[in-house]
Amino acid sequence: MTETSEAAQAVARAHREEWARVVGALTRRFGDLDVAEEAAAEAFATAVARWPADGVPSRPGAWLTTTATRKAVDRLRREGRRAEKQAAAWAELAGGPAEPVGAVDDDRLRLIFTCCHPALAPEARVALTLRLVGGLTVPEIARAFLVQETTMGQRITRAKTKIRQARIPYRVPSAADLPERVSGVLAVLFLVFNEGYLTSGPGTGPVRPDLTAEAIRLARLVRTLLPQDGEAAGLLALMLLVEARRPARVTAGGELVTLDEQDRTAWDAGLIAEGHRLVRERLDSGVAPGRYQLLAAINAVHTSARDVRRTDWSQVVALYDQLVVLDPSPVVALNRAVAVAEVDGPEAALATVDRLEGALAGYHPFHATRAELLRRLGRDRAAREAYDRAVELAGNPAEAAALARRRDRLAPCPSPTACTAECSP
């Protein structure tokens, strides 16, 4: 491997691992997300140019933060504003004292609370966090939200402007405000985790372990802040139990593997044990579980079974019955139907799924679920059509390939006119 390629890999790795830390550190120092983001981007561009010739620094994060700070100071000097921030930055470069960091010394956690401030619209909170904390590009976020890149860029810009104009503080909320604010943070962390668990567009690979790891790291910090918060524990448990299955989720050829086909011996036993412990702690608390706790409990049932045939599907249905009360969304109803199919058969499940078509017509898991139920009922022609629609809608190439493989296992239909009863819709 050449020095240039090694340096390029080091820059890519540093971007995954250090982007949010650099942006967070500059936001704390300069109090401006635009300055922080642009200076961080310039620092990474400088690394691309210099690391192949100068070598990769021993502490890439520190190098990037120092370089980004200098870039920010240069920009502020050129613009002739914020003299006090310039002075503070120069004091830091000279070894002077930095401003207090508060009870939790983590710039990324402060950054995510800023991005998730209730003054921002919900979609802006998620988009801004994915950009500034997750490090996703605007095109990636636009694909996740199914909007145009220009629209997403404007949404992020408006969110940063709102933070500046409303003087939203860059800090972890006070103890009194923390419980109310944490639910918004958990929702965003779940979105970040999901983007890593199953990427939303081409060109990024089927999964992004950097994003799932970052979401888990931040979820651990929130759990530390609120050790008695059941939903903080539930979300962490959910992430751990899902992440535990990642080693078995992708084939050597890059195709996604469904839960029923995964090699369970490849699952991460340590993560499963930790997730199960958190679920048991919440059950023992005697407090009614919230949404994330129920989802974690469902995943605990799945990861407790050594074989898919040993899954306690009745327990899964019972947990979904509780979840539907808290979250009566079509997606939850769809997932419940999958479990119902294992308890009451595919015909009963299909009746529920078909009632969801109006709400989920553009949601590829709806068509994939329907295809599988139709296949089990021997209605191969209709199953093939449903698989075709699922493949068409799937945004992840690896997932589309897995769906196509399942479709291609179906017996070929001779022709619409010669189709047998077993092949007809």
From TrEMBL:
<feature type="domain" description="DUF6596">
    <location>
        <begin position="181"/>
        <end position="281"/>
    </location>
</feature>
<dbReference type="GO" id="GO:0006352">
    <property type="term" value="P:DNA-templated transcription initiation"/>
</dbReference>
<dbReference type="GO" id="GO:0016987">
    <property type="term" value="F:sigma factor activity"/>
</dbReference>
<protein>
    <submittedName>
        <fullName>RNA polymerase subunit sigma-24</fullName>
    </submittedName>
</protein>
<dbReference type="InterPro" id="IPR007627">
    <property type="entry name" value="RNA_pol_sigma70_r2"/>
</dbReference>
<dbReference type="GO" id="GO:0003677">
    <property type="term" value="F:DNA binding"/>
</dbReference>
<comment type="similarity">
    <text>Belongs to the sigma-70 factor family. ECF subfamily.</text>
</comment>
<keyword id="KW-0805">Transcription regulation</keyword>
<keyword id="KW-0804">Transcription</keyword>
<dbReference type="InterPro" id="IPR011990">
    <property type="entry name" value="TPR-like_helical_dom_sf"/>
</dbReference>
<feature type="domain" description="RNA polymerase sigma factor 70 region 4 type 2">
    <location>
        <begin position="112"/>
        <end position="163"/>
    </location>
</feature>
<dbReference type="InterPro" id="IPR036388">
    <property type="entry name" value="WH-like_DNA-bd_sf"/>
</dbReference>
<dbReference type="InterPro" id="IPR013325">
    <property type="entry name" value="RNA_pol_sigma_r2"/>
</dbReference>
<keyword id="KW-0731">Sigma factor</keyword>
<dbReference type="Pfam" id="PF20239">
    <property type="entry name" value="DUF6596"/>
</dbReference>
<dbReference type="Pfam" id="PF04542">
    <property type="entry name" value="Sigma70_r2"/>
</dbReference>
<dbReference type="Pfam" id="PF08281">
    <property type="entry name" value="Sigma70_r4_2"/>
</dbReference>
<dbReference type="InterPro" id="IPR013249">
    <property type="entry name" value="RNA_pol_sigma70_r4_t2"/>
</dbReference>
<dbReference type="InterPro" id="IPR046531">
    <property type="entry name" value="DUF6596"/>
</dbReference>
<dbReference type="InterPro" id="IPR013324">
    <property type="entry name" value="RNA_pol_sigma_r3/r4-like"/>
</dbReference>
<feature type="domain" description="RNA polymerase sigma-70 region 2">
    <location>
        <begin position="21"/>
        <end position="82"/>
    </location>
</feature>
